[in-house]
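LOG
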Amino acid sequence: MSNESRNLATSLFKGLDLLGVLSVRSEEGAGITELVDDMGLPRTSVLRMLDSLIHYGLVGRDSERRYRVTDKFREWRMEDEQERLIAEHRPLLRRIADEVGEMAALGRLQGRRIRHLHWEEPDCRVRVMPPGGRSFEIERMAMGKLALSQRPDLVPAKSSPVTLAEIEEAGRLGYAWNRGESEEGIVAWGTWLGEPSPLALMLAITWPEFRYSDAALGKAKSILKEWRSA
């Protein structure tokens, strides 16, 4: 880990992660048990962060002890960011699905997990199961390795030397692979859609292993290059 990484304010990162988790639960709110599970932190730590955010006015707690972001937090956003991001990137995902013939997904780091905001599927007889409602270990995902390259404090202590090397490589190259690590028979390639950062969007393209080819990946990269230069 670099000296720069050691100097990062990881407690601030965790507070921002918590706000991110609550922002997507703004309608139903979240109880402490749900938040502890999402954040992967001790209950006392999550409660301390919640009390601080309540004191700052960004989070509120109702009579049923469910937490939600406040209007003050929404004023920071000014719009439904998720809907805007989906609308902005859906044409790119659709084009990849149509021209490459594989599923393309949009995601970002949320807490200690990758949240899949949207995905587009090709019209194929053999298809990859969409990621919605499913949970994978972050270090086994292509997008997860990218995210961990920017958040070394979230790298699981149990990670193997091979995984650690792949995370380091993802930080250096700007893309990462999942070769059957999250699901047997599945290949995924992920990259950033902006400058690498814990808040940046990521794209993942997923193939059944038997259908993957370097030519297909090359086609996807060409589409991305054209999109970035537009």
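LOG (cont.) second protein
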Amino acid sequence: MKGSFLWRNRVGLMGGALIVFSLYLMTAGVRHGDRIAAPARGMLEVLRPVQSGTADFGQGIRSVYHDYLNLVHVRQENERLLTELAQVRADQARMAELEVENRHLTELLELRDALGVDAIAANVIGSDATGLSHTLILGQGSASGLKAGMAVLSNRGVVGRIIATSPHASRVLLIDDHNSALDGFDQRSRARGIVAGVVDDGIIMKYVDRSEDLKPGDTIVTSGLDGIFPRGLLVGTVRGVHREGPGLFLTVQVDPAVDFRSLEQVLVVTQQMPQMTADQKG
């Protein structure tokens, strides 16, 4: 009945009953032989695959996470090692380049000492980009004491002469340019002529008397008569001698001693060369 004690306190009594039942379930199955233990064991057996799968899944997730962390660490380590390897290779390349430059500079300084003249080493920083003339650009200019007309040499022979300067750069006219000319002679026969460039590349020795004895393989050196180049510097080797035609002079083709395209450093003679006479050529 609605007015009875049970009805009026139904909520409190129902809650108390549920609490008691919960406490019973919590303690049930602890003692051996409890009737509730069998259903509990059945429930545990039913839940075992689920719990096992959950545990395996969790273990798999942890394993994948650890593998990912290890992979990230390995990748970072590889990147660090690759960076260090690239730095080592760059340092080795720089050291090798410095060694080559030092060797070239040493050879140029030895040439300067052998000639007994005042000279400075200069770096080649460019060449004629138009192809209209055969020139080189040096990284030193008037601020270093360079002037137009100074002789330019390499450890292999004659390169050319300076034709223009700025404070920090100079232009060199190569001996294979068609506007270039220097006084030289055949070291074996002593035949003298003017070494000049030709338009289609290469150099020749002009104005050599037809009676002179020049042969392929002869060495051509500077005579010192032009007042620019010191005497006895290597110019090139005779490639061919032609006597065709009724002219007074031989046509002498010469291979330059210097590979102008591979020049990196040169020696500029800053000392004015004395003007020699033909009688002093000896």
